[in-house]
Write a structure and sequence with these properties.
The complex is a heterodimer of chains A (442) and B (76). Chain A has 442 residues and is α/β, with parallel strands linked by helices. In chain A, 42% of the residues lie in helices and 19% in strands. In chain A, strand 1 and strand 2 form a beta hairpin. The N and C termini of chain A lie far apart (167 Å). Chain B has one domain (8-73). Chain B has a two-stranded antiparallel ribbon with strand order 1-2. In chain B, helix 1 runs antiparallel to helix 2. Chain B is elongated, with a radius of gyration of 20 Å. Classes of the chains: A alpha/beta (442), B alpha+beta (76). Chain A binds chain B through residues 151-152, 154-158, 161, 166, 171, 175, 179, 183-191, 209-210, 213-215, 217-218, 220, 250-252, 288, 291-292, 295, 298-299, 301-303, 305-306, 309-310, 313, and chain B through 1-5, 7, 9-10, 13, 16-17, 19-20, 23-24, 28, 30, 33-34, 37, 40-41, 44, 47-48, 50-56, 58-63, 67-69, 71, 74, 76.
Chain lengths: 442, 76
């Protein structure tokens, strides 16, 4: 500071310190004395309460806030104690234009004049818009606005809870629209304040309570609505408590707050945002007249489908009935009869052939057998001899002189008495001598 | 989505659409088609009854001392 903000010559004597007792060797004032002078001068010159507008810079805020406020020509140091800082809703940061209310005083410890702030008000778009922006950033990071987390609306709700003021126009719009579209829908009004200090808390409580008891009561969806107003009027729907209640609600919520150009946090978090209460009701409640038409069309389709199927079945039946098998069933019998007759004929012929075949085989075997039988051999001039016991006689030594024997020829028998018996001595070269392998006749 | 009591109308419409789909597929025999048709017409009757329900009065939701929500008549 290049000049004091006061004229020291104008100071009255009672205010001046008693220099006689305190001055140093050369009569100079102490620093504390000067500080006291300055402080007094400031208190005299400046109003007790001042409002200052400027841009925040060098902001340091923990409990107490220390910052400067400046314009393009001057800077003023400021301090805002924690008790005041806690009440400031909008976040203060460098670059923010604010109006501060407070008093000037000389801070003798550091030797400068500073402004002791009693109140901070962001200017222009700052206050509420800034607060809204900060909240939106926070909620976006938490996923409150994520589309995949939004609940789908019920196709045919039977009971809808409307959270709004009973005295507002929005409620009547909802009632008119729902009764026109679906008269049988049950509407339950949860009356809340929709602006003012208590509004956010009431709205949050209403939604939370409905969410907890919806299944028991049978509530299928919630419609949160109010009519148009200023940003301050609608501010309750930008509060964190309302956003939390909507986000955690177990039933779908349709929100229609203010006019079409207004967008609140509640609407961003809700499962569906509608521009007006009427549109919200239309989004939630199906049109019974349109549904009745759809049901009528279903009835026509069903009847048509069955009629077509019956007709097709009838055509198939008629086609079958026209077949020759049904018109001349006797043909089927005749055919079968003819077939049977043919088979019988074939059977008889086969049997006859078979018997003839067998007879030929037997005859052939008989001839074969006769060819190798004893009678054939006898016919060629051979004979065989039986002893007295009618046993075939093979060896000469088996009989003795006087034994009766019988010789069998091809045309009869000769009975004889043995005169002598013994081995025959054959001449050399007789064929019988070398024939050892003829085999037995018997 | 939370657990909701499934409205009868939604059930009826869903069943009706399934019946129509079955009949349109051509894979249903004549006897089964007749049975499905009768069932479908019953559902249509149910839907028409629900849609024709008279208007219900709006009621007010309030929390009693235990915090339990109750419905009360209102002159809204």
């Amino acid at each position: 500071m290049t000049r004091l903000p006061f004229d020291p010559d104008r100071l009255s004597t009672p205010l001046a310190p008693d220099l006689g007792s305190q001055q140093g060797n050369d009569g100079a004032m102490t620093v504390s004395q000067v500080a006291l002078l300055i402080n007094q001068a400031v208190a005299d010159a400046a109003p007790r309460k001042i409002r200052v507008v400027g841009e925040v810079s060098n902001f340091v805020g923990r409990d107490h806030w220390f910052f400067s406020i400046k314009d393009d020509q001057a800077t003023l140091r400021c301090v805002c104690f924690a008790s005041i800082a806690r009440q400031v809703k909008a976040p203060v940061q460098d670059g923010l234009t604010v109006v501060i209310t407070g008093r000037l005083a000389f801070y003798e410890v550091q030797g400068h004049i500073q402004f002791y702030v009693d109140k901070v008000e962001p200017v222009g778009q700052g206050p509420l818009e800034l607060q809204l922006r900060v909240l939106c950033d926070q909620l976006a990071k938490l996923g409150y606005f994520d589309e995949e987390k939004k609940l789908s609306l019920p196709a045919f709700p039977q009971c809808v809870a409307v959270v709004t003021s009973r005295s507002g126009a929005a409620l009547q719009d909802v009632i008119d629209t729902t009764s026109r579209r679906w008269p049988g829908l049950e509407l339950l009004l949860y009356d809340v304040r929709v602006q003012g200090d208590q509004a956010a808390g009431q709205i949050g409580d209403a939604i939370t309570t409905i969410s907890q008891q919806a299944a028991k009561i049978g509530i299928d969806a919630v419609l949160l609505t109010r009519g148009g107003g200023s940003i301050e009027d609608l501010w309750a729907f930008n509060e964190r408590v309302v956003a939390d209640a909507i986000y955690h609600c177990k039933v779908p919520i349709v929100a229609a707050i203010g006019h079409q150009t207004d967008t609140t946090v509640a609407e961003l978090v809700a499962d569906l945002r509608s521009a007006t209460p009427t549109q919200a009701a239309m989004a939630l409640v199906p049109d019974a007249a349109a549904l009745m038409m759809q049901v009528h069309q279903y009835a026509q389709r069903l009847t048509g489908l069955l009629s077509r199927q019956s007709s097709y079945a009838q055509q198939r039946l008629d086609a079958v009935r026209r077949h020759s098998l049904f018109r001349r069933p006797d043909l089927l019998v005749n055919t079968a009869d003819q077939r049977l007759s043919d088979l019988v004929t074939q059977l008889v012929r086969s049997e006859k052939r078979c018997i003839e075949e067998r007879n030929r085989m037997v005859a052939a075997l008989d001839r074969q057998l006769s060819g190798v039988g004893p009678q054939s051999i006898l016919g060629r001039g051979y004979s065989y001899t039986l002893d007295s016991g009618n046993r075939p006689l093979k060896l000469a030594k088996d009989v003795q002189k006087g034994h009766r024997i019988t010789t069998v020829l091809c045309d009869g028998r000769i009975s004889s008495i043995v005169e002598s018996s013994g081995k025959e001595t054959l001449p050399v070269g007789h064929p019988k001598q070398s024939d050892r392998g003829q085999g037995d006749l018997f | 989505m939370g657990k909701h009591r499934r409205p009868k109308f939604e059930d009826a419409i869903a069943q009706l659409e399934q019946i129509i789909e079955n009949l349109e597929s051509g894979e249903t025999g004549l006897e089964d088609s007749l049975a499905e048709y009768e069932k479908g017409m019953d559902l249509i009757k149910q839907c028409r009854t629900i849609l024709g329900t008279v208007q219900k009065k709006i009621k007010k939701l309030t929390a009693d001392t235990d915090g339990k929500l109750v419905k009360k008549d209102t002159n809204v």
